Amino acid sequence: MVGMNCPNLVHGVRRARQSKEALEAKRRKEQSKLRDYLALTDDVLTRVRIYSRYNAFDLTRREQKKRNEWSREALNATTQLLQVNPEFYTVWNYRRRILINGVFPESTPEQIKDLLTDDLSLTMEALKIHPKVYWIWTHRGWCLNNVPSRPGISDDGDPRGWEKELWNQELFVVEKLLDADPRNFHAWSYRRLVLESMPVPKLETSELAYTTRKIESNFSNFSAWHQRSKVLSSLWSQGKLDETKSKEEEFDLVHNAMYTDPKDQSVWIYHRWIIGSGDSRDILEREIAIIQSLLEEEPDSKWCMESLVHYKRLLLRNHASSVVTSTLTQDCIQLLDQLREVDPGRRARYYEIGDSGSGLTLTVTLIQHTSYIWFMSYFKRVLSIDNILNDKWRDKHWWAILLTLAIARLAAAAVQTTNAAAATATVGLRDGSLSGL
Predict the structure, then answer these.
(1) What torsion do the CA atoms of 406, 407, 412, 415 make, to the nearest 10 degrees?
(2) Who's near 313: CB < 8 A, 6+ residues apart?
(3) Where does this protein have coiled-coil stretches (predicted)?
């Protein structure tokens, strides 16, 4: 390959050699920037420590302001520091305290709005480089929640005019950010906050249409599927959408996604959400048939196999009286065997699923683990060789020896009995006699 074993080539492009003088100048520049950052950090954190130390005691707001903890100077210092390091959540918290206690009380509503608008600009610049930092999104939401009530530019006289303007603008901003990164779950979570906070709520049907566009452009957008599930749940609970009819439409959308990319996890998780607890036998059998057909085209599809096991177990659990349990159980066993081959990294998980019908595997593990840990810790602490060989200790604590041996024997018997029961249950599972796979 081009550039292999050649230190002067980077991605096939020859790297220019830098002189010692250039490297030294670069090092000095970096050290200067680091010193400036550390000095700025020390200044801001010193103010934070003073604020934290005295705020809980008897300093009045005026006295605190005299200490420059809530001054414009302190605000400017946090601005400089956050422009360099927007992940410094302590400084974001301190900045909000400065605004609330020091700056806002002396500002007009227009000035407060301007300050908050400046902070929205500050966070936007930070999001361009750090789109997945919680603290930036949190501060942005705080700014919008603290906009003063004023009519705004419209002529309707609505006292929440400013809020309407900024929240509507914010929804547009979030959509642009999601266009840049459609799967940014921070942006999706923030979008839900914006929708919940808008003075004039947006129609949920329009949000449903928005998720449709995002999903159709990229079926692997898990955040869009998740948002869609929340919107649909809300519409169904309010009776604004026929649940049965809309679920059928969702199945059509999911089937299209399944056949487009059967390896995509997002689609299969959403499919399970639509089916839910599997109360409808007809839907389960129909979906099993569709997935079975897809598996014939994609014989190594892990998600097809996992879903078939899941839905056939739902049939066994909820509709055992009206299905052939032996056939379904055998199908599940065969599918789990195949899954152990195509997905060896989760082999133990598939063994556990196969044994979960008895509910005894976990019991065996817990008894073995607990008994072993307790016995060994007690043995090391009390029944040490030195103690046992000590005649005086042995004569005084003979009961401890007998009690420990008796408990160990009972624990071993319990493990043996439970293992036998688990083995019997597994045999029953493979014979098709257990319907609660």
Answers:
(1) 150
(2) 332, 437
(3) 13-40
- 3-state SS class at 9: strand
- Closest C-alpha to 141, from 186, 108, 184, 180: 186
Contacts of 177 (CB under 8 A, 6+ apart): 127, 131, 184, 187
Residue-wise pLDDT for 369-402, tens only, equals 445 555 556 555 555 556 656 666 556 666 666 6
Residue type (1 letter), 192: R
pLDDT over 80 (residue 49): no
Pairwise CA distance, residues 247 & 108, whole Å: 52
Burial class (CB in 10 A: 0-12, 13-18, 19+), 11: exposed
Q: Which two tokens stand for residue 256?
A: 């299209």
The residue whose two tokens read 């705004």 is: 152
Helix (H) or strand (E) holding 250: helix 243-260
The SS3 of residue 30 is: helix
* Per-residue pLDDT tens digits for 125-144: 999 999 999 999 999 999 99
Query: Residue 15 to residues 7, 9, 275, 349: CA-CA distances in angstroms?
Result: 8, 5, 57, 49
Q: How far apart are CA 428 and CA 205, in angstroms?
A: 50
What Cα–Cα distance (Å) separates residue 253 from each residue in 178, 257, 280, 398? 21, 6, 19, 73
Handedness of CA 230, 233, 239, 244 (dihedral sign): positive
Range of lowest pLDDT (53-67, 110-124, 150-164, 250-264): 53-67
pTM of the complete model: 0.72
Q: pLDDT tens digits, residue range 223-246?
A: 999 999 999 999 999 999 999 999
